From TrEMBL:
Pfam families assigned: DUF7504
Positions of region (Disordered): 90-110
Organism superkingdom: Archaea
Compositionally biased spans, kind Polar residues: 91-108
Protein's UniProt name: Uncharacterized protein
InterPro entries the UniProt entry points to: DUF7504 (IPR055927)
């Protein structure tokens, strides 16, 4: 693959330093690209962190997907350090009962109608707060929060409101020096992607060319710099 690297950050020394700072201080990452759901699931597993390291994970799903496919190998929705929040018709596989916005345990979460964007946001923040209460102060990058299918939040809701919601969720995570990532499938240059990008510190573009493994490219708007394409 002539334009794809196999490791490292794929960028300049200052680019690498900026990535290290984001991991140390907390970061908000927008994941986008015209790839299939399996590639997005793979990227989510990577961003939620290795099962060999201490991680506290909150997975928020928009749409009818099973949470297990997005969690790293060996990590289950019912683990004490995992919380699953669902939006729309999806339910957490970790619970057989619904919850209120203020009743989210480390291993269960409620379901919310599609028009309750505020409720979804509150449930994610409650899950983060609950995990912190259970586990105490968290180390840098120990907290990992992912929103899968965030493009679905735009259905019937203005992009400005969704941007504000994701910005608030990101701040909630960064305040705890955590890593927040959010998936919006579709073209990198789509107007919605550009608008949502204002709520994030970095963008991860995904692609998969015919017959080749999936790849990723990181962009840091503050530096106006992107990495090379790297294997996912």
């Amino acid at each position: 693959m002539d334009d794809t690297t196999r490791g490292g950050d794929g960028g300049s020394p200052r680019f690498a330093a900026a990535l290290r700072r984001l991991k140390r201080e907390g970061a908000r990452l927008l994941v986008t690209g015209e790839v299939n759901a399996a590639v997005h699931a793979r990227q989510t597993r990577l961003l939620l962190g290795s099962p060999r390291e201490e991680r506290v994970r909150v997975l928020a799903l928009v749409g009818g997907s099973s949470p297990s496919r997005f969690l790293p190998d060996g990590v289950a929705p019912t683990d004490d350090d995992v919380a699953v929040v669902t939006h729309g018709d999806t339910r957490s596989t970790a619970a057989d009962v619904s919850s209120t916005d203020a009743d989210v345990s480390p291993s269960s979460a409620g379901e919310f109608p599609t028009d309750r964007l505020d409720g979804f946001s509150a449930a994610v923040q409650s899950a983060v707060d609950c995990q912190r209460t259970v586990h105490g102060p968290l180390s840098p990058a120990e907290l990992r929060v992912g929103v899968v299918g965030a493009g679905g939040l735009l259905d019937g809701t203005g992009v400005d409101r969704v941007t504000r919601t994701l910005d608030a969720l990101g701040e909630c995570v960064v305040d705890r020096r955590g890593m927040f990532h959010c998936h919006v499938s579709g073209p990198v240059d789509a107007p919605e992607t550009a608008a949502l990008g204002a709520a994030f510190d970095a963008r991860i573009d995904l692609r998969q060319r015919d017959g080749l493994p999936p790849e990723q490219r990181w962009t840091l708007p503050a530096l106006d710099e992107s990495s090379e394409w790297m294997l996912l």
